[in-house]
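Working notes for the structural subgroup meeting. M.R. asked for a predicted model of this chain before we commit to crystallization trials. I am recording the input and output together here so anyone reviewing the notebook later can reproduce the run.

Input as submitted:
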Amino acid sequence: MRFLLRRLAGLAVVLVVASFLVYGLLYLVPGGPMAFLLGNRSGTPEQIAAIREQYRLDDPFLVRYLAWLGDAVQGDFGSSLVYRQDVSALLTARGTTTALLVGYATAVIVVVGVAAGTVAGLRPGRADAVISTLSSASLAVPTFVIGVLLVIVFALGLGWFPVFGPGEGFLGRLHHLTLPAITLSLGSAAFLARITRASVREELGREHVETARSRGLAERHVIRRHVLRNASIPVVTVTGLTVAGLLAGSVVVENVFALDGLGSLFVRAILQRDFAVVQAVVLVLVTAFVLVNLVVDLCCKALDPRLSR
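Returned structure, recorded in token form:
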């Protein structure tokens, strides 16, 4: 419990600092927030007054920040100047697509990366050489190139998957998100496979593994209890960081496959100078990142209780 409370307190501090930076950095643009909000447009005095009232620009900075933070904690991120609706509604409508995409990609990364890395670590030789070659090739190809190739081969050529759009219904969404999820996860799965392979190889050479074998324990038992369990700690850590990085990587994939998710919304908000949407999306992504780190810490603690000391 003390371990969990320490982690929660640390994450709370991180979120407060991040929210302050998210809110404050946009006020440092040349010309101030009004120049950012208006862009190249020349608003009428009534429009300027409405914007100043909406963003509390006449109040001191700390008062504006605390008021914005209080509203954000309650799920109120203000109204979008471009879409003319609540930012919370925009995030809810598009967050489902991004969550499904990241979740699908995470499953692919964990299954493919851990399985391939374990096989390469336990079976040196041809299997290790093939997996190492494929992982190196996957890491060398940029994400957008992988997406374009998958569209050409599996969507346009074979017609197995749709080209654009998130789909409807759960199964329909999974069908539409298969190519984007593979595109998003391929490089990360290759990286995780290399980490898993190195971790398994390192554990195979440790003294306690040789001791377990000398006691006559079955090889399956030695691998499961003494190799894979200890090798899983760095694998879990890297998996958590990789999943957190998928939130940023989804921006490219959503634009390639025309998915209306948080990534594409964020890009459009920056180009259209939609102040409230930019702040909200960044804060949501930071919150997701720190929550993933919390889950990783708890998993590592469960695998090795000594980490809580």
